[in-house]
């Protein structure tokens, strides 16, 4: 595959960092866009994606072959509490990037979520009817539609839906999976309840990065909607907690599984039961969909290197 000029937005985030690392390792010329963290790390290019004029000027001045749009307000409870701010990054920004993809001719990959589905009838094909249960899912669905609107004007644009992610973190709170390391390691006597109802497909950002690279280097146009998830087993948060407890050799008697539908507490929003995605579209494209390492293999190696999780 010939090297490309690739822009990765949200490059300082969990997925963004993995994508930057992978694309650069394959020889691409990567511009890693970030905002707040760019002040502390010169490897990032600082650009406010909500400043349309600044974004227009940047793309006019730079040759871009592909944009991988990872930047988002990814926290459902935050999107619910402050929907206007979340909508700017989750809807308005991808719409603008779609317009720029039409104007400048670059490929656009928008990172979406399995939360566009209600989770009642898994598994989900790309053709399944979305029915998000919360503001976050509704906004990401609107972002999909904004991105795909650019296709009608000739852009090579697509939305790829992914489930809950984990990976190399700067702090465990970067991921709803990584944070479970904190729960397991907290042997202070504090008691925790852990969801054993909602089914997840925790997916490694390194595997997502590989798929994103393959998609941006396809020799044919992208399909509009794509699904990717781990090839590993379905897991509840309780399943993940038990696995991490074994790896860390820590007792988890302070954690109690909750098998019923979780109560929605103040400041929280509803999550779907099981949003398992099919990967048929990727398979038809010839893109590899299996995990580089299983959930347990990856965490065993990572926690041996970083016992605190970061």
TrEMBL record:
<protein>
    <recommendedName>
        <fullName>RmlD-like substrate binding domain-containing protein</fullName>
    </recommendedName>
</protein>
<dbReference type="InterPro" id="IPR029903">
    <property type="entry name" value="RmlD-like-bd"/>
</dbReference>
<dbReference type="GO" id="GO:0006556">
    <property type="term" value="P:S-adenosylmethionine biosynthetic process"/>
</dbReference>
<dbReference type="Pfam" id="PF04321">
    <property type="entry name" value="RmlD_sub_bind"/>
</dbReference>
<dbReference type="InterPro" id="IPR036291">
    <property type="entry name" value="NAD(P)-bd_dom_sf"/>
</dbReference>
<feature type="domain" description="RmlD-like substrate binding">
    <location>
        <begin position="5"/>
        <end position="286"/>
    </location>
</feature>
<dbReference type="GO" id="GO:0048270">
    <property type="term" value="F:methionine adenosyltransferase regulator activity"/>
</dbReference>
<dbReference type="InterPro" id="IPR005913">
    <property type="entry name" value="dTDP_dehydrorham_reduct"/>
</dbReference>
<dbReference type="GO" id="GO:0048269">
    <property type="term" value="C:methionine adenosyltransferase complex"/>
</dbReference>
């Amino acid at each position: 595959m010939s090297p490309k000029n690739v822009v990765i937005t949200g490059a300082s985030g969990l997925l963004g960092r993995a994508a930057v690392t992978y694309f650069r390792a394959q020889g691409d010329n990567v511009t890693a866009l970030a905002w707040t963290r760019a002040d502390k790390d010169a490897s990032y290019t600082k650009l406010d994606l909500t400043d349309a004029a600044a974004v227009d000027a940047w793309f006019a001045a730079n040759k871009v072959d592909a944009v991988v749009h990872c930047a988002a307000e990814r926290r459902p409870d935050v999107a619910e509490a402050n929907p206007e701010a979340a909508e700017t990054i989750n809807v308005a920004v991808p719409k603008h990037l779609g317009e720029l993809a039409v104007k400048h001719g670059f490929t656009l990959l928008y990172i979406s979520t399995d939360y566009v589905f209600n989770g009642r009838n898994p598994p989900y094909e790309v053709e399944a009817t979305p029915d998000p249960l919360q503001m976050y899912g509704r906004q990401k669905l609107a972002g999909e539609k904004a991105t795909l609107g650019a296709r009608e004007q000739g852009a090579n644009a697509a939305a790829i839906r992914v489930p809950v992610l984990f990976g190399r973190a700067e702090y465990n709170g970067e991921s709803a999976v990584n944070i479970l390391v904190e729960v397991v390691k907290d042997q202070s006597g504090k008691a925790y309840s852990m969801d054993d109802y909602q089914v997840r497909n925790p997916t490694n950002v390194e595997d997502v990065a590989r798929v994103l690279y393959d998609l941006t280097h396809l020799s044919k146009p992208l399909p509009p909607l794509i699904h990717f998830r781990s090839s590993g087993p379905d897991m509840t948060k309780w399943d993940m907690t038990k696995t991490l407890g074994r790896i860390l050799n820590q007792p988890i008697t302070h954690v109690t599984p909750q098998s019923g539908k979780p109560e929605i507490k103040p400041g929280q929003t509803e999550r779907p039961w099981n949003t398992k995605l099919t990967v048929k579209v990727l398979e038809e494209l010839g893109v590899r969909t299996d995990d580089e390492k299983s959930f347990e293999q990856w965490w065993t190696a990572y926690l041996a290197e970083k016992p605190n999780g970061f």
